[in-house]
Amino acid sequence: MLFIRELFIAVLNMSIVATIMIIIIFAIRTLLMHRLDKKVLFALWCVLLFRLACPFSISTDFTFMNIVKNGEENNFVNMKYINDDLITVSRVEIISNEVDNKAINNDDNTKAKSILSNIWLFFILVIFTYNMVMHIIISSKLKLATRHKSKKIQEVKDILKIKTNIIVYETDQIVSPFVLGVIKPRVYVPVGIEGARLKYILLHEFVHIKRLDYILKPIFYIVSAIHWFNPFVWLAFRYMSRDIEIICDESVIKAIGRKYRQGYAHTLVSFATKKNKIIPTYNNCYGIIDLTIRVKNIINYENSSLRNKILSILIVIFIAINFAMNPCFKKHDDEYFVNDFKKTYSMSYINVNIEKHKPTYNCPVSSSRVTQKYCLDKEHHHNGIDIFSTIGESVKVIDSGRVIYFGKYGKYKSIMKIDHGNGYQSWYGGIDNRELQLNDYVSKGQIIGNIIYSGLGPHLHLSILYNGEFVDPTEYIKFDN
User: Fold this and answer.
1) CATH number of residue 416's parent domain
2) Is residue 248 pLDDT above 80, yes or no?
3) pTM to 2 decimals?
């Protein structure tokens, strides 16, 4: 569950950056669509795909996204728009007429993120299940398709200089042509199409195969499904699909000559309003609106000038540098956070003590005697400390959090893991548990189990992790002596 929540936060961060990029791409398409080279412009969608799919990137100062003012010298971190802990607060007192003195608790925030991440994952599964069902239905209908043996197939392959074997099928189960398959793409055309119309259709679908569009579109669709909550991503997928068809149309006209534009456009129009009920991934834009735009582009098609090609390349380079790379910004000092917090919450009085140092916790058992120390050497590896205890002694959790694991782990017969938020976890080895369940919330100082017998004698094994790395618990635990 913790992994799903962290993955959801990562997707949200990628989606925010991608939304800004999508808006800019739409602005570029609107203002310069008729001047830019379509193939080069399509590279912008590839940069967007990278931004949506890859959470890791190179950080640089030279980026449009680096818009946050810096506050501290020589201390850089990667920008994060949504985090598990937007601000680390050790103690917050709010005094007003309507609010009593309370301590801020992250449990509600963590629970809300868990619910949202589960909803996110549920709809991803719904989308993928729908596509799998549609794929099975379409595949079953196409089983009776017959192989097309027209001489036009080889003629088209010669025109496009394609050497690989491409199988063409015809069937009465579809009303418009499309390419199906990823490993071995196959072309399906409606029954009864012959002559020049068949040639134009095969030219169009073979160009898709030559350009590997049958691979790119499914990848973009999968990424869009992961970002299903963002309408801008679905809009980008819609326009990306249209741009792929426009580029394909231009490639066909370039291959056969401008004098065949009218015949090719007439063939496309003949499929207007004829839309197959197929998998969304393979939607080939034969709707009236898409065809109107495509036909206008075909009739007005001209080879891009050198100046427009250079302009297109410069724009793509600019967008790639600014959005394919992560920005860096300097960490803000404590005073900035306090002022920002005060501006966000307009109240009568507010006293915020920012946590400057490591948190300190009370010892989870009564004894302060450490029988084995923390050590990460290869010869004496021990990722925590052992504290002397007695059999049956109660063990108290060091801080509020959520149970994320209980059971056998490595050499420990029983271990409980608590996620405290803000990057911290605590592990308790050598205890039993009869009441707590996974995802149960525990309060600071709550009894979570009792010491059980161990071959090394009764003791509590305590590990503390910060951001997934083991740290020395003695630097965090406050011992009585």
Assistant:
1) 2.70.70.10
2) yes
3) 0.59
